[in-house]
Design brief:
This protein is mostly helical. The protein is built from 15 helices and no strands. About 80% of the residues lie in helices and about 0% in strands. The radius of gyration is 24 Å and the shape is flat. Residues about 305-310 have low confidence and may be disordered. Keywords: Cell membrane, Membrane, Transmembrane, Transmembrane helix, Transport.
């Protein structure tokens, strides 16, 4: 893959981040006055004026926008209006919990989903296949908040074997990880089954079977690597969506991560914190897509030439 291809991808990603920043800036300024949310609508005019000046909200809108872009370019994402701390500090405090929840649920969902998808493809139209696909439909269609509440009612309130909220111990991780991981597993199982079925009908799979190659070798040496491209595509999308997808789960289980922090920031119209989190999510998506494009060239060397020619 030529360097110009990656250069174009990076330029598009930077433009996407700029659009995210611009849209977020405009949407937040149209959502209402953050100073009223901070000090209340009964605060004296002098207090309101003081906080407007402190956070630069007394300047013209275009000047605020230019100043914010300049600050971002220097790595300064501003102060949180609610906590009076740098937005990056609050994100750094919440990020480890989100990574812990996200990685456990993602790795578990990916492993379980791929294995179930392979099993379903090898048993097409059999009861095992129908069971796996029923689970897949349940997994990616069930709203996270509803599944989380059901698990909480069953294991925390009825059976009393698992905690329902917080992040103090490893036991607190189980219910939110199952809630988020079920969605990932259902999605990966569905896409893995489709990709494997398409590959298993190819002529080289028929030739491998005719030569007497063991089923395990046909599946893991021939079928799975060739089915990896569509699987990697959905893995990249879901990995980039990890922070955004955890917002509901963190809120349901009172998990102190980025998602819960974003909900509180939106509620209080905390401009700096909301913008910093959304920029972080956009950068995560950008880096994930670049990583997936690079992995494509390793898994399927044919893409080096095709992508390089298009670049």
């Amino acid at each position: 893959m030529q360097a110009s291809y990656f250069a174009k991808k990076i330029i598009r990603s930077v433009l996407t981040i700029w659009l995210v920043v611009t849209f977020t800036f405009a949407a937040l300024h149209m959502s209402g006055d953050p100073i009223e949310a901070l000090v209340g609508d009964q605060a004296p005019a002098a207090v309101v004026a003081h906080y407007r000046e402190k956070f630069g909200l007394d300047r013209p809108l275009w000047e605020q926008y230019v100043s914010y872009l300049h600050s971002i370019a220097l790595g300064d994402f501003g102060l949180s209006m609610s906590d009076q701390k740098p937005a990056t500090t609050l994100i750094a405090e919440a990020l480890p919990n989100t990574l812990r929840l996200g990685l456990v649920s993602f790795i578990g969902g990916l492993t379980g989903g791929v294995v179930l998808g392979i099993v379903a493809a090898l048993n097409r139209n059999r009861p095992v296949d129908r069971f796996v696909m029923s689970f897949a439909v349940f997994g990616f269609s069930m709203p996270n908040f509803f599944l989380g509440i059901l698990l909480m009612l069953l294991f925390a309130l009825h059976l009393r074997v698992l905690p329902s909220a917080g992040a103090d111990t490893g036991w607190h991780l189980i219910l939110p990880a199952i809630t988020l991981g079920t969605h990932f597993a259902g999605t990966f199982a569905r896409f893995t089954r489709s990709a494997m079925l398409e590959v298993m009908n190819k002529q080289y799979m028929t030739a491998a079977r005719a030569k007497g190659a063991p089923q395990a070798r046909r599946v893991f040496w021939h079928a799975l690597p060739n089915a990896a491209i569509p699987i990697l595509t959905i893995v990249g999308l879901k990995l980039g969506d990890l922070v955004a997808g955890s917002i509901v789960v963190e809120s349901v289980f009172a998990w102190p991560g980025i998602g819960r922090l974003l909900v509180g920031a939106v509620t209080s119209r905390d401009f700096a914190l909301v913008q910093a989190i959304l920029i972080m999510v956009a950068i995560t998506m950008m880096l994930t897509n670049l990583a997936v494009d690079f992995i494509y060239t390793i898994v399927d060397p044919r893409m080096r030439t095709s992508e390089g020619a298009r670049a």
